[in-house]
């Protein structure tokens, strides 16, 4: 498992760890039941504090991506990946509906909205 930490980003290190592990799970690189490196091991390999990795693991556990058992370690959760994606899709729809309402009432054309979404989506992909 390769985690790349950038000190040039505005994103906190624990969020970089969290988002990269989430991407590995969502892409299928990590499967349900796969072990995740111990907090100490990962902290040592990416040269960050154990507390930083602990924060990332707590967030991953809270969001249902990993399960941690004392004495055994952390593993990719068997939580349904499709269910998580469906929840995220609902959030995206809600935000897009609000953006569309604002655009309608402000006279902003659909083409402009598509251009803006393309820029935001592309920038977000490069930052993760």
UniProtKB/TrEMBL annotation:
InterPro entries: Tscrpt_reg_HTH_GntR, WH-like_DNA-bd_sf, WH_DNA-bd_sf. It comes from Paenibacillus borealis. GO terms for molecular function: DNA binding; DNA-binding transcription factor activity. Residues 11-79 form the HTH gntR-type domain. The keyword Metal-binding does not apply. It holds the Pfam family GntR. This is GntR family transcriptional regulator. Keywords: DNA-binding, Transcription, Transcription regulation. The keyword Coiled coil does not apply.
């Amino acid at each position: 498992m390769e985690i790349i930490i950038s000190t040039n980003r505005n994103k906190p290190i624990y969020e970089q760890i969290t988002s990269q592990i989430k991407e590995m799970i969502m892409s299928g690189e990590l499967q349900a039941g796969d072990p995740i490196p111990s907090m100490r091991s990962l902290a040592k390999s990416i040269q960050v504090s154990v507390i930083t990795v602990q924060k990332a693991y707590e967030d991953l556990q809270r969001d249902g991506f990993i399960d941690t058992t004392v004495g055994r370690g952390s593993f990719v959760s068997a939580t349904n990946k499709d269910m998580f994606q469906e929840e995220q899709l609902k959030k995206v729809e809600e935000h897009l509906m609000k953006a569309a309402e604002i655009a309608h009432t402000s006279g902003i054309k659909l083409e402009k909205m598509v251009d803006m979404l393309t820029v935001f989506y592309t920038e977000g992909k490069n930052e993760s």
